[in-house]
Amino acid sequence: MQKLGFTNNAEMLNGRLAMLGFVAALLTEALTGKGVLHFLGLV
């Protein structure tokens, strides 16, 4: 049975996904010249 909650593996995966999201946001801004909020229509 898998452990749930704040396990080392869950935190490692969460950190890696957060880094991927951050890099995706930076690339979106660099390639389009618009920020992520503008791209999503929130600004």
Automatic annotation (TrEMBL):
Q: Name one GO cellular component term.
A: chloroplast
Q: Which UniProt keywords apply?
A: Chloroplast, Plastid
Note the InterPro entries from the entry. Chloroa_b-bind
Entry superkingdom: Eukaryota
**Where is the protein localized?**
Plastid, Chloroplast
Q: Name one Pfam family in it.
A: Chloroa_b-bind
Coiled-coil annotation reads none
Asked if the Swiss-Prot or TrEMBL record annotates the protein with the keyword Chloroplast, the reply is yes
Q: What is this protein called?
A: ELIP-like protein
Q: Which organism is it from?
A: Cyanidiaceae sp. MX-AZ01
